[in-house]
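One such given next:
>
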Amino acid sequence: MLGMRDECRSEKEWIKWTYWYLDEDTASMWSNILGWRTTEWNDFITRLVGLYPSALRLGRDFVREDLYDLIKVQRNRDIGMEEDLGEYLCRYKEIAQYLYSKGKIAPVDYDSYILEGLDPEWK
């Protein structure tokens, strides 16, 4: 591991070498958003995950019940802003794509379930 080398013992060094391994555009973006002031590894990772929220769900396996639970929760939640709708659609797409790719839902079901989570006035 990178942090175990003799020349890379401090958390600040881990962060420095993480930037070193990135392409120039990504390193520039990270440094502009995260800033170079972050010196603690855990703080750096926490702020980084904030840039890529889906990173916490990498490798996640879903089952049909996850989709049903999302729909049930959304059915009882108001969509007050565009962001609320976008969040629901994003989460729905993530779960539905996984289930479809594994043959757990039929193509016709992929889009049909999404309406179940919306207010009847929206349907």
